[in-house]
Every structure is written in structure tokens, then in C-alpha cells.
Amino acid sequence: MELAAIFEKAEANVYRLLLILKASPNQMYLKQLMEETSLSRSTLLKYISLFNELARKGSLVTEIRIDEDVCWLEMDPGLEWVSVINLFIQSSSRYLILKEVFSHHSFTIQSLSQKLMISEATLNRHLSALNDLLKEFSIAIYNGRLKGPEHQIRYFYWLLFQNCWTFETKQDHLNKEELQKEGRLVERLCHSPLSTAQKNDIALWSFISQKRWSVSNKETSDLSEALTPYAKNVFFQRLEKAYMTFLSRYALEMDESEAENLFAFLLSMLCLPSHTMAFVLGFGGPVADQMTDLIRSMRRAELCGNHLPDQITSTLGQILHRRYFFRGDILVHRSLASDSWYNPMPFIKSSHRQLAAQLFPNQQGCDLMFAMQDDFLSLLSYLMKPRQGTIYIGLHLAGGELVQERLKNLLENRIAYHRYIQIEAYDESKTYQGIVSDLGFLHQASCPIYHLKGPVSLRDIEEIAVLIKDLLREHRLSSLPYFPTY
Question: What sequence ranges are listed for the domain Mga helix-turn-helix (predicted)?
């Protein structure tokens, strides 16, 4: 599911235009944009004016500039992309419908049409369009209620809020002691601390789950059946026992399906340390068997040896568990996913992309397969990196070790593995000269921060390279061997 599909028509076209401009490494002629978007010149100019007006009203430091038919996007490096998404999402009738059915569990056509100030016919058209989009997740809105497997409903809303909530919105909803407890429970079970991003991901899942506790007649049989092979898995048994004890404090009748939902989420969304994922896989099961077959395919293609790093096996486990338990995905940048200049990966060849498509085939237009192909290629990019400072760059990113390694590969490749630059995952206990982040938890950091606006593009790489060059100059290292410019 493409995120822009839930925007109003004009806003969806403006958003797709922004994706093209944001991803392009160079300025673009209006004629190029007309070809990319299949829009007329007058319509294109109208959409550019619409975005600039929305940005001005939203007090965002960003603008689409035009000079003699040359067009480019100007954006404050400190601006988070989700703030741009919020320019469009708040006026979206489809998004408001999804929020309403989540918050109140049910509605009538008459009451909701009055609340949204649209006609009943328009509301029915929006509901029909939404149900077409939700088919990918095997859920639907029927008679004013959400229908479908409970774990799929929670998964869909986790993806939706993860992509649409700003840092401030997440703080307002998730910075509550009650929602942080589940993260601490997982830390105790793993005997290992979790990152801030992992704990916030779990808190968001907890928020959604608690909203769904009061819903009656939830559909849980699909997930229970999928978890049958895990009945003797020691980590699942420990989690189920600990979580049911944790839930007993609430004055609601709970069943084992709550622990099953949490278990599937933790395994599928990079919320577990590498050693815990290895422990889970050690008990066998369908995903462990799939991983064995996948590694064999990688070895036949001479992409890996007999031993794989822990973060690789952990990430493979996450990718395969997500495919096993869940269906569907929300792609924030779907319209450009196949463009290499938008989605750069060092060391990746066309044969690698063919292997990814073979191992994760796009079944009936399921966007989750596109995301998995991308994750798998990121993993290969890390495996194929040539193995080898005084400037420390911290990567403070959502998505776990694979996302960190992918950006690290891209930056190291761009700066020609400069020996005076050390790029690593952000550690709160360390001091950095610069930080690259797609999270909003570092507003008080004393060093320069580059905020990614979504999946990394060549434009991001060039702008981060400029930041690093400035840091080298500031620390009087600019006379040392430097990386090339293109």
C-alpha cells in the first residue's frame, strides 16, 4: 500500500512530486517533471504553489523553487520528513476515517459523515477505496467496524502511526510509564538492554494493543495456527508466562492471544537483540527451515561463506518472520522504489536484484515483498563491503542494525573509506562530532545533526558528505587525504 493512496487526490500528486524532487541528486527541468509525473505544465505549477502554501501555513522551512524552468526542493536539514507528511495527512478524509474506527471501534455512516462534514455518498466512496487498499493486509471496515485477523489490524496501525506520527505526537501518546513497562519486560527476558528506538517501537505496539483490549470477538485463530510450531520454543514459553502475569494486573479478561501478538511483533520488527533471535531460531521451526534454504541459495550464488555475522542471521530471521506472520506494508516512497539513483546500494549488481526477486517474489501485488527485497539487498550490500579516525559520526536510526550498516556502507563508499572518519551506530555514552538521524530524540545534542527525510537518497549522501567535509575542516584535518568529489 502506497502511503499517498490515503491522501486527497491533489495532495497525493503533490506528495509524489516531492518524492521525485527530494530523491533527485540534481535540479530538474519542468519538462523532466512533466514526463515523470504525467502532469501538464499548468497542473504542475498549480501543485508547486499548493505545496509552498501548505508549507508556509504549517511553518515548515521548505519550498519548491523555480528559476527559468529549473526546479528544485529546498529543505531545512533539520526538518523531519514526517512533518511534511503531516501537511497532507491531517486533511485526508481516509486517514480521519482510519483514526475514527481505531479510536472508537465503531461508527455509523450518518454520524461519521456529519463529523467529517462530507456527504454519506462521499463517505461510502472513501470506505470502498479504503477497503481496496486494506485487502493487502487481509482486513476491512465492515458495518462501521474493523474486521480481520487481530494481529493484522494491530500491525497495520503500527505501520500507519509509525510513518505518520511526528516526534511530538509520539511523545504525547507514548511517553507514559504504563507503555514503557513492556519494553522493560522484554529487556528482562532477553537479559540485554534495548535501544531507545526499539523501546519506542514496543511502546507504540503496546499503545495499539491496549486500545484493542476492549474489542470483543477478536479473530485470533490465524495467528494461533501459525504459532503451533512454536509451542515448545523456550523463549515463547517464557514470554507467554511473563506477559500473562504482567496482564493479570488489569481488570480485563485476557487470553494467550495477547502474548502471541507480542511474540509475532517482536520477532518481525527488529525489536530483539541478535543473541535472542539466534536463541529463538535454535529451536527450529518453519522460519528456521526457510533460513537454511535461503543461506544455501546465497552460498550457491557465492555471496557468503560458511559463517555469517550475528547481525546478518538476526536480520534474516526478522525478514523471514515478518513474511511468515504478517501480510502487507505501507511504503512511504513506493513510486520510486525501483530507481537506482533514488535507492542507491554499493556493491549491488543486477544479478543480486534478480536473486532478491526470486527469493521474495511479488505475490499478487503485495508491497511487503518490495520491502523484503530491499532489506535483503541491504544485507548483501553489507556482506560484500570491502573489510578494512578521528571524526566520529553517529548513526541514530530506526530499523535496527541492517539499516545502520546500509547507510554506513553508503557513506564509507562516498568518502572512499577515509581513515580519519569513523562511522558507527549511535551510543548515548559516547561523544560524536556529527550525527545522522531519522528519529526525533536528539534535539538537545551539541553537535551538528543531519535529519534524513525518509530512505536515504544520493542527495542525502552528498549533503552528509558536505557536513563531514566541514567537520574535517573544523577539526583541522582538511589538509589530510580527502575523499573525491563527483
Answer: 83-161
pLDDT digits (tens, 9 = 90+) for 246-273: 998 887 778 899 999 999 999 999 899 9
Distance from C-alpha of 176 to C-alpha of 197, rounded to nearest angstrom: 15
Q: Is 449 helix (H, G, I), strand (E, B) or coil?
A: strand
Higher pLDDT, residue 390 or 331 = 331
Cα–Cα distance for residue pair 102/39, rounded to 1 Å: 35
Q: Which amino acid belongs to residue 336? A: L
Q: Do 159 and 329 contact (CB within 8 A), yes or no?
A: yes
User: What string of DSSP letters covers 50-117?
Assistant: HHHHHHHHTT-SEEEEEETTEEEEEE-TT--HHHHHHHHHTT-HHHHHHHHHHHHS---HHHHHHHHT
151, 325 contact by CB (below 8 A): yes
Query: Residue 256 phi/psi, 5° resolution?
Result: -65, -15
Give the three cell numbers for residue 9: 487526490
Q: Taking the alpha carbons of 193, 178, 204, 440 in that order, is the dihedral positive or negative?
A: negative
Alpha-carbon dihedral 401, 404, 407, 408, rounded to 10 degrees: -100
Residue 386's Cβ-count burial label (10 Å; 0-12, 13-18, 19+) is exposed
CA-based radius of gyration for the chain:
23
Cell numbers placing 485: 568529489
